[in-house]
DNA sequence: CGGGACTTTGAAACCCTTCAATGCCAGTGG
DNA sequence: CCACTGGCATTGAAGGGTTTCAAAGTCCCG
């Protein structure tokens, strides 16, 4: 909003107004979208598309990844309910976005319709920029996470960040849509190390594991301390 | 351009037209910009700004970084001549952008003027999106580089990427504006390791070092082979 | 019940970090 | 002019953390 918003919006704490605008935006753009459901591992889009659509994920989860030349998979984005994705970011790198869960629901916004909508209303343009800035935030967060010195810090940061996502933070028990392998490929460490870090966090009492994919955070501060 | 461009632009290989539009865009936006010169280590902008400007770097170099809680510095972006930066990407993370070289020249585009310009011409909006997508590309490239398994691969990829930058690729001898420490903080490895990797690349004949900051790439393919 | 994907744990090998010391160069002040 | 300082670059050696390889356990689903 900041980079391109109207002057009145610059007096910041008008959160309601900002929130309303977001709602209006969602309503407007959903009017031009096509709903889809995807199966586990189903490809949603990839970097080959000459004319990429915009998408929003409604339920389930998706991952954006690239295969390194040595065969390893690098996940460069986790997509959770409410997140936009797919617009022409990072061209020519051979990335793929695919659903992680069965029944993952998405909305696809065809580019020519997004174009027309944006041309008709500057407010839409502002919100589209917000969407893209959000992606930049996520990527920077990932760089800062991967950049940590030790694997334990990376995993702790990952747990902190994912637990703050709007789609998870409300529930009392967090449910990871990701396997240990996915987390490993996101953090650029081995799945065994991820596993060991989770075990350590559990033994330290920083998280409680109800199952491999379900956990609670009894004391958020002690988790933050793990990141030093 | 793809995500928001006019229908005619979708027939891709109109590179000249695209290039011309870029030129027009630069001309238009430079008309609202303020030129500045910065000394080494001088701060250009930071994440505290409630209303961030857009910037473009003309000469010299800059780095975007965040200080980890353990005191280490993580560089999350290298800014070279021609690059845009500074718009509201990655809020609330306490980042700083500062000049690396003495005499670094930049143009600052005040946000309200960018706003007005965008509102007046949809073509400007398209180009601004291109600017932001470019930043996403760079960040993703960094994730893929940091995500490599071995330090030698990270350094080789770094050398490959920076040598492809428009502002460097034309010269016969590449001149790094960065110290080994900067490269280390960009790749999230220790400066000693960076140094050893450069030495190894030199001993393998993959690069020729004329000085710590100057090198040539006798055989690009063998450098690409270092990345596996 | 069996298969397959995922999770967990252990042990050894390897790579990177850390600590330390040296060298180099430019800028500064005596 | 020259010692001196600080920042950067380089190299070595030891220590530690992660990866790799291996094996066993769990759970879901056909």
Give a short summary of the structure.
Chain A is of the alpha+beta class.
Key phrases:
homodimer, 228 residues, alpha+beta, four-stranded antiparallel β-sheet, 11 strands, 42% helix, globular, DNA-binding
Description:
The structure is a homodimer of 228-residue chains. In chain A, the strands form 3 sheets. Chain A has a 4-stranded antiparallel sheet with strand order 1-8-3-6. A 4-stranded antiparallel sheet of chain A has the order 2-7-4-5. The longest helix of chain A has 25 residues, at 122-146. The radius of gyration of chain A is 19 Å and the shape is globular. Helices cover 42% and strands 22% of the residues of chain A. In chain A, helix 6 packs across helix 7. Chain A has helices spanning 15-30, 111-120, 122-146, 151-164, 166-169, 180-187, 191-203, 220-225, and strands at residues 34-38, 43-46, 54-59, 62-67, 73-79, 84-85, 95-99, 104-109, 174-175, 208-211, 214-216. In chain A, a hairpin with a 5-residue loop joins strand 4 and strand 5. Chain A contains 8 helices and 11 strands. Chain A has 228 residues and is of the alpha+beta class. Chains A and B meet through helix 2 and helix 3 of A and helix 2 and helix 3 of B. The first copy, chain A, binds a DNA duplex (30 and 30 nucleotides) through helix 7.
């Amino acid at each position: 909003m900041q980079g391109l918003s109207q002057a009145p919006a610059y007096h910041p704490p008008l959160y309601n107004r900002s929130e309303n605008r977001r709602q209006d935006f969602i309503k407007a753009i959903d009017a031009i979208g096509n709903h889809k459901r995807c199966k586990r591992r189903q490809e949603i889009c990839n970097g080959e598309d000459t004319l990429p659509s915009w998408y929003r994920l409604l339920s389930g989860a998706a991952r954006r990844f690239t295969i390194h030349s040595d065969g390893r998979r690098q996940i460069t984005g986790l997509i959770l309910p409410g997140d936009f994705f797919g617009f022409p970011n990072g061209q020519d790198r051979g990335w793929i976005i695919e659903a992680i869960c069965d029944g993952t629901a998405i909305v696809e916004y065809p580019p020519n319709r997004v174009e027309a909508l944006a041309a008709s209303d500057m407010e839409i343009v502002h919100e589209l920029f917000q969407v893209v800035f959000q992606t930049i935030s996520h990527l920077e967060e990932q760089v800062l996470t991967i950049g940590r010195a030790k694997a334990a810090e990376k995993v702790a940061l990952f747990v902190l960040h994912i637990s703050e996502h709007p789609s998870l933070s409300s529930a009392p028990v967090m449910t990871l849509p990701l396997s240990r392998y996915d987390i490993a490929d996101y953090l650029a460490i081995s799945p065994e190390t991820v596993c060991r870090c989770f075990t350590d966090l559990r033994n330290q009492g920083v998280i409680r594991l109800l199952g491999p994919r379900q956990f609670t955070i009894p004391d958020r501060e002690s988790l933050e301390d793990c990141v030093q």
